[in-house]
Design a protein that fits this description.
This protein is of the alpha+beta class. It is 22% helix and 35% strand. The protein has four helices and eleven strands, in the order H-E-E-E-E-H-E-E-E-E-H-E-E-E-H.
Length: 209
């Protein structure tokens, strides 16, 4: 293949995340709701019948469906299904920064406003119950931070003879940071805490400008 042909083939291509078609894509919504004149954030407790992370605190959300037009549609659809509300009960979905992790997932977070908490009827197959936390709590309390060290363990037939250093190759060991918020008897951590902390950092930055 000639160089000019290669350049012409790639010149008008729009770059994307490498391998994104093989990633599992999900969206979550940070639901803002006014209660007694104060802004709250709504959370779900995952049903104990779920195979993945039963009993954990999370935001409404889930996997991208082929019929979803875009990530915001996924966030709204999943929220309506989990909270038993309609699209009309959700307004102003605004995207935050999306997350790409080493487990092959892309998560698209959004914020949005819920009209009222009275209309909510959680789907018991997915949601054990809901609760809200005043936004002021997160503005006044930083999350606790803990380190998780990720061990690298090649499979038994790994071809050490093909790399410089062989079995003595010095792998770069990763350290992950996990965030924790404790509100009453509720523990908010993991992806939910990371998305929440990002959101708080954005509005705090805007407030301080």
């Amino acid at each position: 293949m000639q160089i000019e042909n290669i350049l012409n083939e790639l010149r008008d291509r729009t770059p994307a995340l490498m391998g994104h078609k093989h990633f599992k894509q999900s969206s979550v919504l940070i639901p803002l709701i006014e209660i007694n004149g104060e802004t709250h954030i709504l959370f779900e407790i995952r049903s104990m019948n779920l195979r993945s992370q039963p009993g954990d605190v999370c935001f409404p959300g889930g996997r991208f469906d082929q019929e979803d037009k875009h990530p915001a549609h996924t966030a709204i659809r999943e929220t309506t299904e989990e909270l038993g509300i309609t699209e009309q009960d959700i307004s102003d979905p605004i995207p935050l920064d999306y997350i790409v992790n080493d487990l092959g997932r892309i998560i698209y977070p959004f914020i949005g406003k819920l009209k009222t908490i009275e209309n909510i009827l959680p789907n018991p197959d997915e949601v054990d119950h809901i609760f809200t936390v005043p936004l002021s709590f997160f503005l006044e309390n930083a999350p606790q931070k803990y380190k998780v060290h990720v061990e690298i363990k090649p499979e038994d037939n790994f071809p050490y003879h093909l790399i410089v250093g062989g079995e003595d190759y010095e792998w770069r060991v990763r350290t992950l940071e996990e965030l924790f918020y404790q509100y009453d008897d509720k523990t908010i951590w993991g992806l939910t805490a990371k998305v929440l902390t990002h959101f708080i950092s954005l509005i705090t930055h805007e407030r301080d400008r």
